[in-house]
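Supplementary Methods, section 5.1.

A reviewer requested that the exact input to the structure prediction be made available. We therefore reproduce it here, unchanged from the version used in the analyses.
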Amino acid sequence: MDYVNRKRPQPKKGAGKGKGKRGAAAKANTQKVAKPVPWLIVILALVLIGGFAYLLYQINGKGEEKAAAQKLDTSKQAIDQLPELPEERWQYIEELENKEVQVDVPELQAGPPKLMQCGSFRSQSDAESLRARIAMVGLESQVRASEGSNGRWYRVILGPYETKRAAERDRHKLQRSQVFGCAIWNWNLD
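The structure derived from this sequence is encoded cell-by-cell as follows.
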C-alpha cells in the first residue's frame, strides 16, 4: 500500500461541532496558543556565555608563557651545575683503527652437474613443441629419448649446469614465460 501518496481521510460531518466539553476541547487543540518568551532567561544565558568567552580570552596563553619562562630558568641552572667533561678512558678506538680482521672462508665444493628436466612426453611432437617454447625464451634445450619399463619417453632437458644457482636462474626465466614444472636433478649425461 502506498502510504505516501494516499489521501488523508476527511473528518466526519458534525465532528467537533457538537455541544459540550468534547466540542470545546477539539477546538482548543486546533488553535495554537502562543506562549510568552522568557526574555529574562535569554538575557541571563547570553551574559553567562559572554562572560565565559571573556574569561577564556584572558587566560589564553598565560600558562604557556609561565611554563616557558620556568623551563628556561631551570635549563640555565642545570647548565651551571654540570660537572666538567671527564677524559676519555676508552682506548679501543685507537687500537681498532690499525687492526685487520682475517676470516677463513671455506671454498664451496662443487657437486655433480645439474640437469633441469622441463617435461616428459610419450610423443616426440609434444616434446619438440615444448623445446620450441623454451627456445623462444632464449634457452637451449635437448630432447632425449629413453626406454623405460612402460615404453618410450621423450624428455626435454636443459643443462648441464655447474651450480644449482645457475639452474634456478633459468628456471625462473621459464616460469616468467609460463613454462612450469621444471625440476633440477643431479643427473649424469651418460
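The chain has a mean pLDDT of 82. These observations are discussed further in the main text.
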